[in-house]
Write a structure and sequence with these properties.
The structure is a single chain. This protein is of the alpha/beta class. It has one domain: Rossmann fold (3-Layer(aba) Sandwich), CATH 3.40.50. 34% of the residues lie in helices and 14% in strands. Strands 2-1-3-4-5-6 form a 6-stranded parallel beta sheet. α2 links the parallel β1 and β2. α3 packs across α4. It is globular and about 45 Å long. It starts with a helix and ends with a helix.
């Protein structure tokens, strides 16, 4: 179609849906990997958007890199490198759970590449706080052991096929990612559009904090914490509303 033909077509109203196509970068939480977005990716791509699902060092298909030296800074650098080496711009950066620590430490460093921050049942940390500060009962050994069946069910994953699929892929979490404090500025993310999506009761305090800070707010409480597994269509519907 030539420019002149396109102009004539638009004038006749034959093209009605010209929604902007954007790039989503979906960052998984503790014990997970990029694999956890498997049900979400084709839904976003079918709507015409680009989707990246990086796996943080030491987890998922990168579990062979697991070691005591891996900390929160490592994971922040993981995502910064994806944005840089893929030369991504106008990114909708989505974090789940623990990854709220990651993108909070990343936002100002990569501000020019980002369009929106989306906290999906995720931590919204203060400067100098660690994951451990928000989950003081979590046991810390050489590794932070992956959740079992009972934990998954408590998080809302009840379908037996989903449970089996996740158990075969969840991995132990490096302890320094839990204990290293995040370093952020008072202005982190404030110049970006920010959204909080609450899908479980575990993040009610974070949701209230987000509302007070002027975030857009959505809830999908029927989904449980791992909504990308249990209610992918409903979660993607929210993602698409954001763009």
């Amino acid at each position: 179609m030539t420019v002149s033909t396109l102009g004539a077509t638009l004038a006749k109203g034959q093209i009605t849906d010209q929604k902007e196509k954007v790039t989503f970068v979906l960052v998984h939480g503790a014990w997970h990997g990029g694999w956890c977005w498997k049900k979400v990716v084709p839904l976003l791509e079918s709507a015409g958007h680009r989707v990246f699902t990086p796996t943080l060092t030491g987890l998922g298909e990168r579990a062979h890199l697991l070691g005591p030296q891996i900390d929160l800074s490592t994971h922040i650098q993981d995502i910064a490198a994806v944005l840089e080496y893929e030369d991504l711009r106008n990114v909708v950066l989505v974090c789940h759970s623990y990854a709220g620590m990651v993108i909070s430490g990343l936002a100002e460093k990569t501000r020019k590449r980002l369009a929106q921050l989306v906290y999906f049942d995720a931590f919204l940390p203060e400067n100098g706080k660690s994951f451990k500060d928000y989950t003081p009962t979590i046991p810390l050994n050489e590794l932070v052991r992956k959740p079992g069946v009972d934990s998954l069910k408590a998080l809302g994953v009840t379908d037996s096929a989903d449970v089996a699929w996740m158990l075969s892929r969840l991995g132990d979490q490096p302890p320094k990612t839990i204990t290293q404090p995040v370093r952020i500025t008072a202005d982190t993310g404030k110049s970006l559009r920010r959204t909080f999506i609450q899908t479980s009761q575990y993040f009610t305090k974070e949701a209230e904090k987000a509302k007070k800070q002027g975030f857009r707010y959505y809830e999908l409480l029927s989904a449980g914490h791992d909504a990308m597994v249990t209610k992918p269509k409903e979660l993607v519907k929210i993602f698409l509303e954001l763009v």
